[in-house]
Specification:
Number of domains: 3
Shape: flat
CATH class of the largest domain: Mainly Alpha
Structural class: mainly alpha
CATH topology of the largest domain: Receptor-associated Protein
Radius of gyration: 31 Å
Largest sheet: 3 strands, antiparallel
Strand content: 5-15%
Number of helices: 18
CATH architecture of the largest domain: Up-down Bundle
Length: 410
């Protein structure tokens, strides 16, 4: 779409001017007339040079923060409850948002509404911000006349997902920091400390033990062929990235994450909680079970769980009960399976799934709170082993030299 500068006068004769994105000058004129503004002039602005995608990713100009989406959902729910016209609500939020990307998207949504589109159809044109679950929930709200409840449910869901992602980051932050510090420490020893001792031993012409020779060889390789190590690390990272970008690679990586020691439990419970909460939201809104499975599989954020959820969907399509396909999927504990069975029998499956999500959420909070206590002993043992190896390799020759000096051979 092009950007047009416009001037016009409202019913009181006041001069109104500004800029707007639109497909044509005629569309701008129609919008002005619909807003009770008599057009005076409409001119197209020169398009600014388009920035490359990699620069947009770095600067964040093309990214809508989750907090902006959360606030948009909350404000839409409030405005729908207040009875404001949809176009007025969208326009008000656009003017108050602090995100340029969000403002551009809402301007495009407003123009779609001007052309007679439904809100769900207008939002569906921006899948990078409004995923299928979001659009489907809004569409169900429009159809049932419960748009306020749809936005309210979406707000809780986005807030829940945001909280889970923060907890996952907290879970991996501590071990990542410690391992990074350990790697830096070992690199400094190999590059700067070991060579000093190696020169000393070379001048003394001492016989060195095998461990010391290995450390010196590793140190020399790191100093002389650091570029090989960097190139190899880059190739491994690039290869891993491309592998994970494939369907099979993503499935294998997501399955591997769930089986990691200690932090794997956190990933399992976060993913299961996201599935239960999202599925409960869709069912409560009146989405059919098969469609609810389809929507949930795409927003759960794990390829392994996505495959198992699609298995469940296929089972429901064949006529199997929800409890049976949940058991066959193998992603629920016995307690959760019992709650799903009770919910299916009582017709309150959404309530039971939401209870499961709350249980998982509490478990995640507990696991993250004790993560440092669980990981710290293993990290201390690892650091102790590495320090012992370095100390033995560096100081054993000095000890042998000292012994030889005190007890010379005759």
């Amino acid at each position: 779409m092009d950007v047009f500068r416009y001037k016009g006068r409202n019913g009181r004769g006041e001069l109104m001017q500004g800029s707007i994105e639109s497909h044509s000058a005629q569309a701008v004129a129609q919008w002005l007339l619909a807003s009770e503004i008599s057009p005076i002039s409409i001119s197209a602005q020169a398009k600014p040079a388009k920035q490359p995608d990699w620069l947009l990713k770095i600067t964040g100009e093309n990214r809508v923060p989750v907090l902006e989406l959360l606030m948009f959902t909350r404000q839409m729910g409030n405005m729908v409850r207040a009875g404001l016209p949809m176009m007025e609500a969208i326009d008000g939020i656009r003017k108050s948002t602090g995100s340029r990307a969000m403002a551009r998207i809402l301007q495009a949504v407003r123009e779609e509404l001007d052309r007679g589109s439904n809100l769900s159809d207008a939002l569906a044109r921006h899948p990078q911000v409004f995923d299928e679950l979001y659009v489907s929930m809004v569409r169900v709200g429009e159809t049932s006349g419960e748009l306020e409840q749809a936005f309210k449910g979406l707000y809780k869901q986005i807030e829940f997902d945001r909280d889970m992602k923060k907890r996952v980051k907290a879970a991996v932050r501590y071990p990542s920091f410690v391992l990074s510090a350990l790697g830096v420490g070992v690199t400094v020893l190999m590059v700067f400390v070991i060579p000093v001792f190696a020169r000393t031993y070379s001048q003394l012409k001492a016989d060195l033990p095998p461990l010391t020779l290995v450390l010196i060889a590793v140190s020399n390789f790191m100093r002389n062929y650091w570029w090989v190590l960097l190139a190899a690390a880059g190739m491994v990272a690039l290869g891993a990235q491309r592998f994970v970008a494939t369907p099979n690679g993503r499935h294998a990586w997501d399955k591997f994450k769930l089986r990691l020691p200690i932090v794997g439990k956190v990933f399992v419970k976060v993913t299961a909680a996201r599935f239960c909460r999202t599925f409960a939201l869709a069912v409560r809104a009146g989405v059919p079970l098969v469609q609810a499975f389809q929507l949930t599989s795409k927003v759960v954020g794990n390829a392994f769980y996505e495959q198992r959820i699609n298995q469940m969907r296929a089972g429901v399509e064949r006529g199997d009960s929800l409890s049976r396909v949940a058991t066959a999927a193998g992603i629920f504990a016995p307690l959760e399976l019992q709650m799903i069975s009770v919910g299916e029998k009582t017709g309150e499956i959404d309530v039971m799934l939401e209870q499961i999500a709350l249980i998982y959420q509490e478990d995640v909070e507990y696991e993250v709170s004790r993560l440092a206590e669980t990981i710290e002993p293993a990290l201390l043992v690892t650091m102790g082993v590495l320090v012992t190896i370095v100390l033995l390799g560096v100081f054993t020759p000095l000890w042998d030299l000292g012994q030889a000096t005190l007890h010379p051979k005759h």
